[in-house]
Amino acid sequence: MFAERLADAIGADAVKTAPEDLAVYAFDAYSESAVPRAVALPASARDVAAIVRIARECGEPIVARGAGTGLCGGAIPARGGVVVSFARMNRMLELDVRNRRARVQPGLINLDLSKNVATAGLFYAPDPSSQKACTIGGNIGTNAGGPHCLTYGTTVNHVLGLEVVDERGEVYTTSLGDSGYDLTGALVGSEGTLGIVTSAWVRLLRVPEATRVWVATFADVEAASEAVSAIVGHGIVPTALEMMDGLMIRTVEAAFHSGFPTDAEALLLIENAGYEDDMDACEHAIEKICKETGALTWRAAKSQAERDGLWAARKGAFGAAGRIAPNTYLQDVVVPRTKLPQMLRLVDDAAAKHELTIGNVFHAGDGNLHPLIMYDKRDKRQVASVVEVGDEILSAAVDLGGTISGEHGIGYEKRDTLARVYDDADLDTMLRLRDVFDASRHFNPDKIFPRGASCVEVRA
Amino acid sequence: MTGRATPADAEELAGLLAACDRERRAVAVEGGGTLAGMGAAVESAITIVTSKLNAMIAHERADLTASAQAGMTLHAFGKALAKAGQFVPLDAPVRKHATIGGTLAAGWGGPRRHLYGRPRDFVIGSGVALADGTIAKAGGMVVKNVTGYDMSKLYIGSFGTLGVLVSANFKTLPSPKAARAFHHPLPLGSRSRAIAQLQTMVATPAAAFWIEGFAKEIAGADADDGRLFVLMEGSEAFLDRATRDLRSALGRAGVPETHVVDAGAREAFERTCDAYVAVVADRSATFRSLGDPTDVEERALTMRAVAHRFELRADLLVDVMNGDAVLRVSDADANAFAAKIRIFDGALHDDIPVAQLLASGSAARPYLNAWGTPPPAIAAMRALKERFDPNGILNPGRFVGGI
Question: For residue A370, what is the domain's CATH number?
Fold first, then answer.
């Protein structure tokens, strides 16, 4: 009945109910899954509005989905219902070169946006490692980051306005240029729990006139962390400041042959972009700091091709880990930048205690770690240990004044850990916001909030 | 409970709110009072002033983060950060009195936001006292954070109608090494081309204005003639190049001369920021239109034309990088001003639907449309207000749509 009504509203070819189709939409990049009752492929905001109205009437949850690259189960239809896939709403609708702005549909692939606007000398700054596959809509859901957040900020800093379908199935718009509450800011990062975004106005940046990329290697992650602190402390905030530990250097080198010295135990990939006038001074300063903090090698990329190659290696690091472990689990935590060495030691200790291997490739400049836990899912002991290690890492980050997600989101995975960061009063303010936009909890239920949080809420 | 209360800390402030909430008493909230002229006037028995919440809570220099109480002035905050060679681009008027809480509550985006970002982009966490006296935190002290909803975004720009900010955490930036400011007399026929050059030049100005009038407030050029004021920030090497580029770009547009401001580029910039809310006794009103940089000249001219239609004096301050057009109308005669301002207000909003009131003489204010046409999502905004402040005690009526 539900699926038939959807098909009547948006067309039979836009609704899928065959078990083999539903199975595809049961997963994202997280380990758990749940099968939806239907999958809808809208072509317009009007289609989305119809889907929301019908789902509400039928009491079915609504889960928006981009490319399913999310690592926290944000796109899993935890309570069934309809998965709304934006595969058919994947275009750039408008480009305003003079005002450096584009209007895009949520299904547009992140990298395609930058490719679309490159001829105008513009680019879209947030660049998650999955940017070849992930979509702008998904990025908005999680407030996605990427290596270049250090200078440019995360998705929320680049969204100027939204077109949204609300819980009644009505379409409205928000804009930073409007008077009133910053609904745009509140909706970005809300993981599909406050409405369904059907298009977005995004800010584009001019491609900088100069970009340089450098690689420094170190004998240990402590020395590399010291270099990170010294660079930032010196008043230089490069566009990217990425770290890799020894295990990941060797893994990436085996896959990409980037010329990384395989005997190093830490590597910094540093990029700075800006005015040509500043580049030599910047390069000298960073090189001097790296050498003073014990860099074993120093390399400046000489061409665009070399820069691209280094970035391809960095962004392909997690994929490359498949060469050394049958299964991997990627964690995402943030600590104040100066706490990096401490945090890395805690990660190491946790790995040793549980006899697991953990690799680290992460956004050092932001204090955003991505411990990559390697395991074999056929080994029950290892699986249990992975869960424990992951949990210990979250607690360690919170204890150091950090938080449990920097860019991947809370989703299904971390909802019960949210209460380690926020107390009841803090969570209650979030639930007030939820009440206004999704009183009936039809949008992406069982996400973000600790189990039971919405039930214990006492209404005045 | 009436009059002005200056709570000593967040807990006392929250206690006052709870008491007022129980008694259904309206509360006006004030920081430095510098943007008190924005929005509609609030009728309340009690005004809570955050001036005693003025301490730096933490400045983690090496982490490039800082946390301060809401009543700290921008001047004091800026001075403390500058000692470590850092800053947060909060370019609100009257920095000496403007507070962090007030600037954020007003969502004040300054003239350098196209380059560095808006204040909201620098807030990584906040503390807020809600109407019922609850103190809640949002975010944290890390520069990247997607842990639950980003509630700070909702409080920033809410004019204290959802809660009272008691503290804010920021990511800071290394201060630009140097700054240079330029005044250019602007020949009439060059204006459009000059604005286009400023908007597109590669060496991006930190701020750029087309100014007419404001002669008393902004020094540098003669009285009512149109002029440009440009601020460049960066390394000395960049500033030398930017100076050359600016001269050649404006030269191409037909702007013949460039005067480097001798006495302090930043001071000149701050005076320009102050002009946004500078009033002429009790006979002026200042409106701002936000929009695209590409049509800012047209909007400014439209606004000026409406002023001239009513024979009001028009001072213009146009942020060409961000697309903000600010018009101050005034009259030498107080009675004449009083007679004209209400119909001017109606006519302005006919032509510029979203014109926000920034400052005004107090007599005129109750009659002015402070926000223009309500935004499309006004219903959701009203629902938010109802959910956060069910008794409607926080700054009632000040905000858009009567919120």
Answer: 3.30.70.2740
**Of A319, A351, A367, which closes a domain?**
A319
3-state secondary structure of B232: strand
Count of domains in chain A? 3
**Which residues in chain A have Cβ-Cβ distances shorter than 8 Å to B205?**
none
What ipTM did this prediction achieve?
0.96
Give which of A153, A163, A145, A158 is closest to A200, Cα–Cα.
A163
A58 & A192 share domain: yes
**Same domain, yes or no, for A299 and A369?**
no
Element (H, E) at A250: helix A246-256
Are the Cβ atoms of B375 and A174 closer than 8 angstroms? Answer: yes
In a domain, A444, yes or no: no
Q: DSSP label at B158?
A: S
Tell me which residue in A183, A188, A407 faces B380 most closely, judged by beta carbons. A183
For A379, which DSSP code? -
Cβ-based neighbours of A207, under 8 Å, separated by 6 or more: A118, A121, A122, A123
Which one-letter amino acid corresponds to residue A440?
S
Q: Given an 8 Å threshold on Cβ–Cβ distance, is B149 in contact with A186?
A: yes
CB-CB contact of A155 with A170 (8 Å)? no
Q: Which domains does chain B have, with CATH numbers?
A: 3-174 (3.30.465.10), 178-263 (3.30.70.100), 279-367 (3.30.70.600)
For chain A, 460 residues long, give each residue's pLDDT as a single digit of tens: 899 999 999 999 999 999 999 999 999 999 889 999 999 999 999 999 999 999 999 999 999 999 999 999 999 999 999 999 999 999 999 999 999 999 999 999 999 999 999 999 999 999 999 999 999 999 999 999 999 999 999 999 999 999 999 999 999 999 999 999 999 999 999 999 999 999 999 999 999 999 999 999 999 999 999 999 999 988 899 999 999 999 999 999 999 999 999 999 999 999 999 999 999 999 999 999 999 999 999 999 999 999 999 999 999 998 899 888 999 999 999 999 999 999 999 999 999 999 999 999 999 999 999 999 999 999 999 999 999 999 999 999 999 999 999 999 999 999 999 999 999 999 999 999 999 999 999 999 999 999 875 543 333 3
Q: Which residue of A has its CA nearest to B149?
A: A190
Residue of chain A minimizing CA distance to B235 = A278
Contact B149 A427 (CB under 8 A): no
Contact B142 A174 (CB under 8 A): no
- Residue span of the structural domain in which A196 resides: 1-207
